Amino acid sequence: MHKLGIIGYGGMGGWHADHALKSDVVELAGIYDIKPERCELAEQKGIHAYDSMEALLSDESIDLVTVAIPNDEHKDVVIKCLLAGKNVICEKPVALSSAEFAEMVDAAHKSGKLFTVHQNRRWDVDFLAMKQLYNSGEIGEVFNVESRIHGSRGIPSDWRGEKKYGGGMLLDWGVHLIDQILQIYAGKKVKKLYCRFEHTTNFEVDDGFKLDLTFDGGEQAYVEVGTYNFIALPRFYMQAKKGTAMITDWREKCKVVKCKAWNESDVLPVQTAAGLTKTMAPRDDVTTDTYEIERPHSDVHDFYRNFCAAIEGKEEQLIKHDEVMRVMKVMEASFKSVEQDAVLACDI
Ligand code: NAD
User: Fold this and answer.
1) pTM
2) Of 37, 186, 311, 324, which is most buried by a Cβ count within 10 Å?
3) Ligand 1 atom 2: residue of nearest CA
């Protein structure tokens, strides 16, 4: 069993305190939060609260620290933990820039300790279904993947709404969705991107964004996060040479429509106000098969299981530094694209 200390006992720190234990590979030594009321809450729940970060870091029984504090503080706190000889899990987004992340990786190398990022949405079943379909080649060569999250409650009214803390939806949700897209198009490089921000309820940071990505084989991806969408567009949409797949909502299965015959002998035209169309008429089951894919198995507690196995030298850590670096670089280029209102050529 590994002994875990958690720095930051807010929403996500609380999640780690519960869920790390469900992985059956860690015991919770305690937490530290700068807010006394959060420490009191922990104590009320029977969780030990350290008086300071230094007190937590000098507890030699702790070999693993999870950092779950606002984004702007990740770099300094993670480096402190690594240099204190702890293995570290940092919440996403790991940092505010690729340069900050590089400093953190350097500190990990210097300390000889392991360092990873809580990209927990690698375990989302909607993403896993899309990745599985992509890898299977079942609907042929994929040329476009669209990934959207649409909410309708605006951006949270906490630190996420302020730039100095690393707020905004690109950093908050974009980090997950971009990571998932890079995982689906594994081995392909981003060669071009264009990003736009939305400011419907917040003018300081983006409360939504729209990002176009082009990969080196010409494949496209579109990533969108919205917080003012009272009708949500599908969570995932994938186009391939032999069919289309869609997940309307993360509670739903993946629907696939596969083309079994390209040519149709008799297309029933659709009557529109302006006339007839055969080109845009929906297909029927003579030329297509429609089915659903079972949800892949997923257990997010495998994140802790894997990282602990990596500490023991038994497994490779699943969330790798070069993968995290690519996500950071795509986000950085996206900010630049917004600033310049321009399509950027890149090689990420
Ligand atoms: P939060 O505001 O609910 O909690 C942050 C806590 O950190 C607060 O209690 C605050 O007092 C404490 N804190 C701030 N600075 C500190 C310091 N230097 N030392 C100790 N404690 C400190 O925020 P949250 O929603 O828990 O977000 C925390 C991190 O988790 C962010 O990076 C966020 O992006 C991430 N997060 C990840 C997911 C996910 O699914 N992976 C979900 C939510 C949040």
Assistant:
1) 0.97
2) 324
3) 10
